[in-house]
Amino acid sequence: MILLGLETSCDETAAGIVDDSRRILANRVTSQLAEHKPYGGVVPEIAARAHLDRLDDLIRLALEDAKIALADLTGIAATCGPGLIGGVMVGAMTGKAIAAVRKLPFIAVNHLEAHALTARLTHDVSFPYLLLLVSGGHCQLLLVKGVGDYRLLGTTIDDAAGECFDKGAKVLGLGYPGGPAVERAAAEGDPQVFDLPRPMLGRKGCDFSFSGLKTALRQKTEGRDRGSENTISDLAASLQTAIADILVDRTKNALDMLADENIKITALVAAGGVAANGVIRVRLTKLTGEDYGLPFVAPPADLCTDNGVMIAWAGLERLRLGLTNGLDSAARPRWALDDRKAMPADEAGRSA
Ligand code: KG4
Ligand code: ZN
Fold first, then answer.
1. Whole-number Å distance between alpha carbons of 126 and 234
2. Sign of the alpha-carbon torsion through 225, 230, 232, 233
3. Is 347 within a domain?
4. Residue nearest atom 19 in ligand 1 by C-alpha distance
5. Sheet of 296-297: strands edge to edge?
6. Structural domain count of the chain
7. Whose CA is nearest to atom 13 of ligand 1?
8. Per the domain annotation, does 167 fall within a domain?
9. Among 2-11, 171-180, 186-195, which is the least confidently predicted range?
10. Which is nearest to 220 in space by CA: 249, 242, 253, 247?
11. 191 and 113 belong to one structural domain
12. Burial 261-296 (b: 16+ CB within 10 A, else e)
């Protein structure tokens, strides 16, 4: 089986190709940073147009990388939500058009499910596992029981972890996207210098909150000692450590909750852009290894941030279970992972 996956739900245009031997045959990603930079955030209309301009070329380049033709594909997968609807429609329509012309099965992929399943492409991970999904738009703890079978354990009540990195970077004047910039600055800083709050820490349950952190960071930044060269890196290090503390505390609660219910998981898996953060990876490895004797698994950084390979892989996992979708399947701005009724899985067996 060889699958092409298309990703257009935010500001990355991507096309990836994988096969059922878990080989990545192509991984083409272009970012739209330059287009959105003047506006300080992603502008949906600009994103949709940029996806439209680039996607055809990216698909051609991905096929060249993989040294295959469209005729060699077993199926086409495209992100059909959740995300910025204009962009999602560009990827979905392109995928459906290729599927229709080549008479190939089409798989409507939930972007969050693609993040959730990536670790099964890069590592030997079997179900069930605990997933910490931390990206720019999402911050969730999920029990992954199988393809299309998820239980939401906790989510954010305000911002996502990536959003907190991005907004924090803006306050610190470090640019966009904030996560990598904060991580770089933090490497030079001392996390003990500034005392930032850790909302929800020590509370029951697995929900997250980050909005108080951004406000506190702004106050510390405005009141900072401008004479010190290290202040920005110290603030970045303090922010990164506060976010890591929150993620570790909430994940620990989820691990305890599953143990209380006698649910035996195989691993803690991290996914989404924030899972690319080295400090957070070290903290989660320590938590699972030392306290629970469980492996911590995270895909390599370039497969944590948005890419087409993860969409192709999710498509492959679905296709081998016979879960395909009709060409009338909708593009969705919102699409919860544990909402069975919202999963096109219930269109199982209906092939394009
Ligand atoms: O998964 P992703 O590429 O897109 C979404 O679906 O949101 O995640 C992007 C988010 C951004 O907020 C970005 O700042 C964050 O992931 N991110 C990081 C790092 N690399 C990306 N956050 C912390 N440390 C990083 N190294
Ligand atoms: Zn994502």
1. 40
2. negative
3. no
4. 179
5. 149-155, 139-146, 129-134, 268-271, 296-297
6. 2
7. 179
8. yes
9. 171-180
10. 242
11. no
12. eeeebbbbbbbbbbbbbebbbebbbebbeeebebbb
CATH number at residue 71: 3.30.420.40
What is the distance between the alpha carbons of residues 307 and 316, in angstroms, rounded to a whole number?
Answer: 15
For the whole model, what pTM was predicted?
0.93
Owning domain of residue 293: 127-298
Q: What is the pLDDT of residues 288-333, one digit of tens each?
A: 999 999 999 999 999 999 999 999 999 999 999 999 999 999 999 9
Ligand 1 lined by 344 (C-beta under 6 Å): no
User: What does the alpha-carbon distance between residue 33 and residue 60 come to, in Å, rounded to a whole number?
Assistant: 22
Cβ of residue 272 lying under 6 Å from some atom of ligand 1: yes
* CA-closest candidate to residue 202, choices 150, 159, 256: 256
Helices (H), 172-260: 178-186, 211-222, 231-260
In this predicted structure, the answer to whether residue 91 has a pLDDT above a threshold of 80 is yes
CA of residue 12 to ligand 2 center, whole Å = 9
Residue 349 lies in a domain: no
